[in-house]
Amino acid sequence: MKKPDLLRAALVAIDPELARDPHALIMWVDQGSIASPMTPSFSFAYSYQLNVLLIGYGRKQAPLAIAMLDWLRVQQPDLLQPNKAAIAFEVDFMDNASVDLQFKLQLTEQVRTVKRPDGGFDMEFLAEPDPLLTDDLGIGGSDPVPPLASIWFNGERLIPDAPLP
Prior knowledge:
- The protein has about 160 residues and is α+β, with helices and mostly antiparallel strands.
- The protein is about 20% helix and about 35% strand.
- Strands 1, 2, 3, 4 and 5 form a 5-stranded antiparallel β-sheet that branches.
- The longest helix is centred in the middle third of the chain and has 14 residues.
């Protein structure tokens, strides 16, 4: 599975404090399954719930949601449908300044597998369908999609708190 690592990178990019304290960001998979069509191919699909737990999180939480929604537009665009919950969450209020915050995302990953003549397999993760609203993501152009670097609200930089280099 590649999506947990990709989401971790997106969250750390928007909140560098998560990189400084790796124990504050815990991820695990629940309810995982593997499906494979009854064909000569060995291709398959992972389907799972990715749990993202932030321990003692004391910063603004909305930027995390924005970062995850931005990530979903490329990595799991089918979750961004009208009247569909893209991300479930739970919050435990630890004190007046911090929470334990858990996000739950239902993800899938398609894996193409081709049997080699020597008995081995060639495998690759398939790309997701084109994201929704590709025009503002720069998809299809020569420039890669820039990472989400900061979030502002009413003229105040929420994340990251320090100026970017």
